[in-house]
Every structure is written in C-alpha cells, then in structure tokens.
Amino acid sequence: MAYEHILVETHDNVGVITLNRPKALNALCTDLVREVGSALNDMEANNEIGAIVLTGSEKAFAAGADIKEMADKSYMDVYLEDFITNGWEVITTCRKPIIAAVAGYALGGGCEFAMMCDFILAADNAKFGQPEITIGTIPGAGGTQRLPRYVGKSKAMEMVLTGRIMDAEEAERAGLVSRIVPLEELKDEAIKTAAKIADLSRPIVFTAKESVNRAYETTLAEGLRFERRTFHATFATEDQKEGMQAFAEKRSPKFNHR
Ligand code: CAA
C-alpha cells in the first residue's frame, strides 16, 4: 500500500515504520495516524515479522497532534469522532513488541505515541514533553495517565502543568526511556534490539509482554497470579522444551514459534 506520511521497511524479521511528515515535524494528523494503524495491522498479520520499530526523523519523532487540524474543531466534532482515541490505540493492541526510537521532539501526542509503545530508546538529542497546557488544552492520548506511571506523580504533574520539556538524560533518569544511544546509532540500535526479540519464541514474547502490561492494569496480587499462570503455560510450548534443552546441550536454541 502506498503511504503519504510514513515510510515502511522490513529488515529481515523486523518491521520499521518511520513517521515522515518533515514539514510539520511529524505532527500526527488523522491521515498519518490512520497510516500507522494500517502499517501496524499489516505487520501484526505478517508471520515473517517478530518485532516493530516506530521512529521519526533526527529533528522530530513527532511534535504532537496536528494543532492546525485540531484548532477549529467543536466539542461535538471531537466527541462524535472520539478524537485522539480513535485510531491511536492500535499501538496498544498490537501483540508484537513495538520499540519507539525517539530522536528530537516527542511532544504532546508525540510523547504519548512513544509511551504507547513497549519501550523507548532515545537518541541523545531527544526531548520529551506534554506542552498541551500552553495551547489551552490537556494531553488527550494518555499523557496524564501513562506519564505518571513512567516517571511518578511529581515529575509528571510538573510537566503536564507547566509544559516543561525534559532532555534525554532526565528522561532516562526518570525511567521514561530504557536507554540513550548516540543519534547516529539510534535506528540501527533499535533494529538490532528488535531483531533480538524477533529471534526469540513468538508465543513466549507475547506472553512476556502481556504479563508486564498486566502490572499497569491490576493489583499486585492479581498480577502475580496472572504471571504464575502464564509462566506455567509456557511449559505447554515446544519452544520452552527447545530453549531449556538447548541450554543443557550448550547450543543455541532453534525456536519454531510453537
Ligand atoms: N501541529 C501542527 N504543526 C506543527 C506542530 C504541531 N503539533 N508542531 C510543529 N508544527 C509545524 C509548524 O507549524 C511549522 O510549520 P510552518 O513552517 O508551516 O509554520 C513546522 O512544523 C516547523 O515548526 P517550527 O517552525 O515551530 O519549528 P521550531 O524548530 O521553531 O520549533 C517546536 C519546534 C518547539 C516543536 C514547535 O514546533 C512547537 O512548539 N510545536 C508544537 C508542540 C506542541 O504544542 N505539541 C502538542 C500538540 S497538542 C497534542 O498533542 C494533543 C494531544 O495530547 C494528543
């Protein structure tokens, strides 16, 4: 399928989606979000792909929802089209791991897009923020809910109330990003990391992702029960047998995703 606002590539078993609307610093207009959703659905259905990288340009991962597109909408417009939720949630329902590789600005919806992914690798020039308050609105794609879960209440509240932008080092210290890599290595490192995941057992990767996500949706007791049951379930897979047998035989495992 031909896309206008994104580039789609595959590197062996890794799918890469690059936001590509440079004149607007990858502002997330409706069509761009729709294209990302469509590309993700294709990658989810493609058995060759085991993990996905979502990235932008060196200057901007994404500078937010498209302010020009939003500016004149009425309450009834945004309510009826379920604005911002509609179309964005594909990132959170995708079972294959998605790594956000963030360079430059990840502001507003851009920061929220990144936080919907499974983890964020940041280039050393990355900048994160929820500046919606400075344009008379609030984060609308999970910023008030996911940011506190990543960085805690105090920092999230300061960022949401003031619109202050944090740099990559602060984002790493706060736990928003898993690690920082030099800008020129970001894409390669993200693909390498995704390939490492894609080479592992697909059902076990799905199970691990589902179990970590459960930590953010339930109580500790329920989460631990879920983990125990899904851990037990891994013993019903061929890949658990292969993985442990390969360890005992001092060889690399050959997972067949069953
Ligand atoms: N929406 C629409 N267009 C945007 C945009 C956005 N979020 N961010 C940047 N652009 C456009 C600019 O309008 C400009 O276009 P023109 O050349 O046609 O004027 C172009 O991208 C380049 O931007 P700047 O000239 O502003 O570039 P800069 O380097 O001087 O500044 C910036 C960069 C600090 C990121 C600045 O562009 C900026 O503040 N952008 C808006 C950030 C923002 O408020 N994001 C939150 C949006 S609301 C939201 O996301 C709601 C939600 O929760 C989902």
TrEMBL record:
Keywords: Fatty acid metabolism, Lipid metabolism, Lyase
CDD domains reported in the protein's UniProt record: crotonase-like
Matching InterPro entries: ClpP/crotonase-like_dom_sf (IPR029045), Enoyl-CoA_hyd/isom_CS (IPR018376), Enoyl-CoA_hydra/iso (IPR001753), Enoyl-CoA_hydra_C (IPR014748)
EC number of the protein: 4.2.1.17
An MF annotation (GO) of this entry: enoyl-CoA hydratase activity
Catalytic activity: a (3S)-3-hydroxyacyl-CoA = a (2E)-enoyl-CoA + H2O; a 4-saturated-(3S)-3-hydroxyacyl-CoA = a (3E)-enoyl-CoA + H2O
GO biological process terms on file: fatty acid beta-oxidation
Domain of life of the source: Bacteria
Similarity comment: Belongs to the enoyl-CoA hydratase/isomerase family.
PANTHER family: ENOYL-COA HYDRATASE, MITOCHONDRIAL, ENOYL-COA HYDRATASE-RELATED
Known role: Could possibly oxidize fatty acids using specific components.
Protein name from the UniProt record: enoyl-CoA hydratase
Taxonomic source organism: Aestuariispira insulae
